[in-house]
Amino acid sequence: MKYPLQRFREEIKKGVKGALGVEKEIPIEVPEEERGDYALPCFALTEYVEGSPVEIAERLTDEIKLEHGKAEQTGPYVNFKIDEEYLVKETVGTCHEMEHEFGELEEKKKKIILEHTSANPNGPLHIGRARNPILGDTLARMYRRAGYEVEVQCYINDLGRQIAILTWGMMNLDEDDLPERDRDKVDHRLVRYYQRASEELEEGEIEENIEEMIRKMERGEEEMLERFENHSKEIMEGIRESLKRLDIRFDVLKHESSLMADGSVEDALKRMEDLESSGEEDGALYFESEDEKVFLTRVDGTSLYPLRDIAYHIWKVSRGDGMINVLGEDHKLHGKFLKEALEALGVEPLPESIFYSFVSLEGEKMSTRKGTYVTLDDFMETAHEKAREEVLKRREDFTEEEVERVAEKVGIGAVRFNIINVQPEKPIDFRWDDALDFQGDSAPFVQYAHARTSGILSKWGGGDLSDAQLKKLDGEREISLVRAIARYPLEIEQAVKNNSPHRLARYALDLASEFNNFYRDCPVLKSEDKKLERLALVKACHFTLKSILSTLGIDALDSM
Is residue 14 one of the residues assigned to a domain? Predict the structure, then answer.
């Protein structure tokens, strides 16, 4: 499916090539300032076209032939503006045809393996770590919207030190000596063993016990492997239940232990041993990563996490055409090593890593080991309660059931949006007042715009809009809203190109703002001469808002 602005871009490229008599790639840009829909900087063209950038721009402006727009010169730039009547007709018409699927791009016939939330399975997720699944799920949604097949994976580290500490606690501690649990969920119940065992580890009492458990596991002793795997599965059951409330699910749960069992780790070890950049020190294998030795095995030959992660990525690459990993910024060095090791092995494609900074809650940082955190479950409950307060302020006519339903969708939407709206590499200090501000940069602001479109369409009652003369939509607010709608497919393109889900959150805010301006200045149902036309535009905006909210993993509400 090609949308009007995409078709216009192709028309420009074809026209430029024809005017200049070249077959090179044409560097079309979307200008920052409102000088047009596209711009062509002519500096790069001097490599294969005679004349200065200004002269080339003059020549292009005179000679290019465009069916659906015009070209204007500004110094060394050529700015292109699409014909507004064409844009209105094609955008609104396509929206009505595709409905909530508007924005979907052509099928790419490529499969992306996207890994996220590969947290240590030692307790419930806390809000400081919840950025990972929310980022990962939004990336998966936008890649699917862009025409890719996506397989979402979670890599479960069921062989590591954290699960060993949890397992020791469950084998040696009496539940009566543990702190009282605040929830019956399995991850909340079991994390208490991990926290109390961590306290004993810090006191130096059980270090050798933990190390011996890890050695037994790495030697493949079935009883210990089974304990590690079962305890991690129990924790993951609770984590998945929490994520389900955020509408986040996995296609594949890959246990680290499975790579030991099926020989994948042993195969990876043999391949790494053959590399020139690998070496041995006291019998332990290492990989030389920019003058730093990353050890892959212990002196007794048992594997370490870096080797097992190499095995996992070799397995992953056989399942798709691209790999994306969502990782905390504390994994940057490991991500760099992993890429170098896979490149040395000739593994293609190499993974793309998206590193995110962590989340604090109104200034408070969190730690699972110390127990100083707010669990994701508690956080979502707070979101629901705070959203409920906001709904009650605005809708005294709602039944209790309606209040609860809307509060859940507004609260969960606020959590997701407030996290996605910030570039991954920037830290977030989550503030409730910002997240639930119906007039600010928030999910409720966008959801409310959608509810307004639903309200207008509900009052209209439905009917045939085929008689709408869309060329009547020529007012400043009308055209501005059409342009905002038309941008959506391009925003999907750019968000995927740069792995920038925050771009889509900002687009959603822009679209909601444009609709609110239109709603304020342009009567719809009471319009004397443009009722059908404006209804057609509201309906197009309704579908676009629903689509972008869905891409962000947020429910579109019909009333708030």
Answer: yes
With cut-offs at 50, 70 and 90, classify the pLDDT of residue 323.
very high
Same domain, 29 and 143: no
> Using CB atoms within 10 A of its CB, is residue 333 exposed (0-12), middle (13-18) or buried (19+)?
exposed
First to last CA, the chain: 34
Q: How far apart are CA 259 and CA 311, in angstroms?
A: 7
pTM of the model: 0.94
List the CATH number of the domain containing 336. Answer: 3.40.50.620
Which among 374, 406, 413 is positioned nearest to 390, based on CA atoms? Answer: 406
Convert the pLDDT of each residue in 122-143 to its tens digit. 999 988 889 999 999 999 999 9
pLDDT mean over 497-509: 98
Share of the chain above pLDDT 70, in %: 98
Together in a domain, 144 and 258: yes
356 with 382, same domain?
no
Cα atoms found within 13 Å of the Cα of residue 254, Cβ hemisphere only: 26
pLDDT in tens, 325-348: 999 999 999 999 999 999 999 999
Q: What is the 3-state secondary structure (H, E, C) of 487-543?
A: HHHHHHHHHHHCCCHHHHHHHHHHHHHHHHHHHHHCCCCCCCCCHHHHHHHHHHHHH
Beta-strand relationship, 111-115 and 149-156: parallel
* Secondary structure element (H or E) that encloses residue 332, with its range: helix 332-345
Query: How far is 179 from 195, CA to CA, in rounded Å?
Result: 9
Query: Is pLDDT at 37 greater than 80 in this prediction?
Result: yes
Q: Distance between CA atoms of 52 and 131, rounded to whole angstroms?
A: 49
d(CA 449, CA 322): 36
Q: How many residues does the chain have?
A: 560
- Which residues, 6+ apart, have CB-to-CB distance to 363 below 8 Å? 429
| Distance of alpha carbon 347 from alpha carbon 313, whole angstroms | 9
Task: Give every CB contact of residue 393 below 8 A, 6+ residues apart in sequence.
Answer: none
Cα separation, 254 vs 240, in Å, equals 14
Give, to the nearest 10 degrees, the angle between helix 53-63 and helix 4-20: 110
Token pair recorded at residue 452: 């307004």
Indicate if 497 and 409 belong to the same structural domain: yes
